[in-house]
Amino acid sequence: MTKPLEGITVVDLSRALAGPYCTALLADLGATVIKVESLNGGDTARQWPPFEDEHSLYFEAVNRNKRSICLNLYSPEGREVIDKLVAGADVLIENFKLGTLAKLGLTDERLTELNPRLIVASVNGFGITGPLKNDAGLDQVIQGMSGLMSITGADSEHVYRVGIPIVDITSGMIAALGITAALVGRSNGHPVSTVSTSLLETALNLSVFQGQRALSLGETPVPQGNNHPTISPYGTFTTATEAINIAVGNQVQWKAFCGLLQIESVVDDPRFVTGAHRSANRDELTALVETALAAKPADEWVEMISAAGIPCGAIYNYTQAFASEQVAALGLVQHTTRRDGSALPLVRGPLTVDGQPSEIISRPPLLGEHTGDVLRELGYDDDAIAALEQTGHVKIDALTAEVQR
């Protein structure tokens, strides 16, 4: 199957999470992603735990289907390689602090000179203007400054960060959307030269109705624990065994839910007649629901409630989630092997195109694994490559070099 981004080449100067997540999505869709890494250890995520032996699982989780070239980003020889990569690329993506790209010699003017059709995509902390534009921004800092942490937790005295770097991940998604939009625009005669997003812009866009509540009503949302902030019954409820999630989203579901729990009289109770009433009297409603749920174990309730068309499910840890029948049916976990022969299960990308789900074409690359191959494609002969390696301007992964010899 031909993938929609086949024939598109992406030069990836990003590191850590937001940028690499973006380019993993582009690679899933068929783009050739050339990950350019520095001689000083490469992508910083390669040094981040958790580790399996010497392998960073943090890095491996978001660098599938890419090629790695390792070089001195600041030497004339290294810059010449980058120039050649840029000249033949469709997209350049970076997530440096503002101004770093220019320090690499890649000013706007130079990029246009090298490749007038190039789309330059950027992800930074706080945006391209404003008093904080030059500040470094990391996921947890932005979760705090965007208001996201203020609505996450047990109550207003106990607020938490989301359990994954959600702002980094969604910023990568937004960047991928911007890049694909720019590619479409270019093909439609509406060329776009730059797209950018920031962690702050993405995080505030995640606020949706909670942010709109603050803007329109002047109300400051507070954490609701595991309850939906405005809809009830919608959240986590105890049963005779473990807790489950239930989401009663409309009046039809509400009546059916009361019937399943054998609390039909509650349907006409003035406290719970409408969604607004149920939200206003959440605590009393929760007590009634959990009293009824105490009659059966969680698995029976999940089966019954789901069969009635009401969203309901168990609360899994990740080990349980990966072992579920639905995850297996979707083929979400795919298996590959590292260069050293060790097994590496990976979560595939989340998209399905024309009935074909994303797939793991190649495992995450070793640092500099494709340096030699990419340089040859750029016109360097073996002697020139050897000279660059011997003088410390590029790095070729030792295992790859041994195979090539």
Tell me about this structure:
The chain is of the alpha/beta class and 405 residues long. It is built from 18 helices and 18 strands. The protein has helices at residues 18-28, 57-60, 76-87, 100-103, 108-114, 139-145, 166-187, 199-205, 208-217, 251-260, 275-280, 282-293, 298-307, 318-322, 325-330, 371-377, 382-390, 398-404, and strands at 9-12, 32-38, 51-52, 55-56, 67-71, 91-94, 119-124, 153-155, 158-159, 194-198, 234-237, 244-247, 312-314, 333-337, 343-347, 352-353, 356-357, 394-395. α1 crosses α7 and α7 crosses α8 (199-205). It starts with 8 loop residues before the first strand and ends with a helix.
Compute the separation of the termini in Å: 34 Å
Number of strands: 18
**Helix segment count?**
18
CATH class of the largest domain: Alpha Beta
- What is the number of domains? 2
In what order do the strands lie side by side in the largest sheet? 10-7-6-1-2-5-18
Q: Write down the overall geometry.
A: elongated
Structural category: alpha/beta
Helix-residue proportion: 25-40%
